[in-house]
UniProtKB/TrEMBL annotation:
CDD domains per the UniProt record, alphabetical: PBP2_Sco4506 (cd13634)
Organism: Paenibacillus glycinis
Family from the record: Belongs to the MqnA/MqnD family. MqnA subfamily.
Gene3D superfamilies: Periplasmic binding protein-like II (3.40.190.10)
Known function: Catalyzes the dehydration of chorismate into 3-[(1-carboxyvinyl)oxy]benzoate, a step in the biosynthesis of menaquinone (MK, vitamin K2).
Top-tier EC class: lyase
Keywords noted in UniProt: Lyase, Menaquinone biosynthesis
Enzyme nomenclature, EC number: 4.2.1.151
Entry-linked HAMAP family: MqnA
Keyword field contains Lyase: yes
Catalytic activity: chorismate = 3-[(1-carboxyvinyl)-oxy]benzoate + H2O
InterPro entries with a match to the protein in the record: Menaquinone_biosynth (IPR003773), MqnA (IPR030868)
Protein name in the entry: Chorismate dehydratase
Length: 291
C-alpha cells in the first residue's frame, strides 16, 4: 500500500541509541500534518519499506542492498564506525577455536550484522560454524550455543553485565577494520524511488531535517547522553565515547567500505545481486549552491 499524494509521508526510525543523532531533533522540523514518524526494529522497518507501508526509513545496509534498485539513498547519512562499534558484539562462551567449529546464536533483528558475521567467519577465519536464530537474550542464546551475536542496545547492556561474567567479546566493527582497513556502515537512510519522483520536495524536507538533527546532535552530545543514561543506564563517560566512536556521514571512505562488504556478501551468495548505490538529489539545494 503506497502513500497517496495527500497522505502524510511516513518516515521509519530505528530506535536504537546508535541512530539517535540523526532523528533526535528531526520530528520538531517535520510538521505532523505532512509527516509521520514510526519507530520499529530494523527488520520490521526493512519489511515495511519493501511493502510500501513507509516511504523513507533508516534501514540496515544489507536490507537496502537486497532491494537497492527500488530505493535511493539520502546523501551523507549513515550509522558507521571507523573501527570499534561497541554495539555489534559476539560473546564467546568457549575458546574461539571451539566456536569456529561450533554453534553461534544470532539475533533476528538486523541482517547487516548477521551477514557481517558470516563473511568474517568464512573469509577471515576460514571457518564454517553452524548458526541458529534466536530472540536477543544472552543467557538463552548461550544455553543453546557456543557464542551469541547481539546488536544495538541489547548488546550494550550485555557488555556491561559481562564485566562480572568475563566472557570473551569480539567487536565486529573492530575486527572488520583490522582485516580490511575500512570502516563499516551498519545503517543507511533510503527512500522509495516512486516517492522521490512523486514528491521530491517532501523528501528534501526530510533530508534537511535529518541532516540538521545530525549536525546539532554532534555539536552538543549532552542531551543524547542524558537520554541514554535515563533510558538505558550506564555512565555519561560511556555514552560520550559511544557517540564519538560512531560516525554519521556517508562519504567516500564509508562508501568504499560498504561496497567491499556488498562484494563479499555477493561472492558468498548472501546477496543474489551486485549493488550499485544511487542517491537522491536535492535539486533545490543544488540550485542554491550553484547560484
Amino acid at each position: 500500500m503506497s502513500m497517496g499524494a495527500n497522505r502524510p509521508i511516513t518516515v521509519g526510525r530505528i530506535d536504537y541509541a546508535n541512530s539517535w543523532p540523526i532523528f533526535h531533533y528531526a520530528e520538531q522540523q517535520l510538521p505532523m500534518d505532512r509527516f509521520r514518524i514510526e519507530k520499529r526494529v530494523p527488520a520490521a522497518l526493512n519489511r515495511a519499506l519493501k511493502l510500501g507501508e513507509i516511504d523513507i526509513t533508516s534501514m540496515s545496509s544489507f536490507a537496502y542492498a537486497e532491494n537497492a534498485d527500488n530505493y535511493l539513498l539520502l546523501p551523507d547519512l549513515s550509522v558507521s564506525a571507523k573501527g570499534r562499534v561497541n554495539s555489534i558484539l559476539l560473546f564467546l562462551k568457549k575458546p574461539l577455536e571451539d566456536v569456529l567449529q561450533g554453534r553461534i546464536a544470532m539475533t533476528a533483528t538486523s541482517a547487516t550484522s548477521v551477514n557481517l558475521l558470516k563473511i568474517l567467519m568464512k573469509l577471515y577465519y576460514h571457518a564454517e560454524p553452524s548458526f541458529v536464530t534466536m530472540e536477543p537474550s544472552l543467557d538463552e542464546m548461550l544455553a543453546e550455543a557456543d557464542a551469541a551475536l547481539l546488536i544495538g542496545d541489547t548488546a550494550i547492556q550485555a557488555s556491561w553485565a559481562n564485566k562480572d561474567r568475563g566472557l570473551a567479546v569480539i567487536d565486529l566493527g573492530e575486527l572488520w577494520r583490522s582485516w580490511t582497513g575500512y570502516g563499516m556502515t551498519f545503517a543507511l537512510v533510503a527512500v522509495r524511488k516512486e516517492i522521490a519522483e512523486r514528491d521530491p520536495g517532501a523528501v528534501a524536507d526530510v533530508l534537511h531535517a535529518l541532516t540538521t538533527s545530525k549536525e546539532r546532535s554532534l555539536r552538543n552530545l549532552k542531551p543524547l547522553v542524558d537520554k541514554a543514561c535515563a533510558q538505558l543506564g550506564g555512565e555519561p563517560a560511556y555514552w560520550n565515547r559511544y557517540f564519538h566512536e560512531l560516525h554519521y556521514n556517508f562519504g567516500s571512505d564509508e562508501q568504499a567500505g560498504l561496497k567491499l562488504y556488498f562484494e563479499y556478501a555477493h561472492r558468498l551468495g548472501l546477496l543474489p545481486n551486485e549493488v550499485r548505490m544511487r542517491f537522491f538529489e536535492d535539486h533545490a539545494a543544488l540550485k542554491v549552491k550553484n547560484e
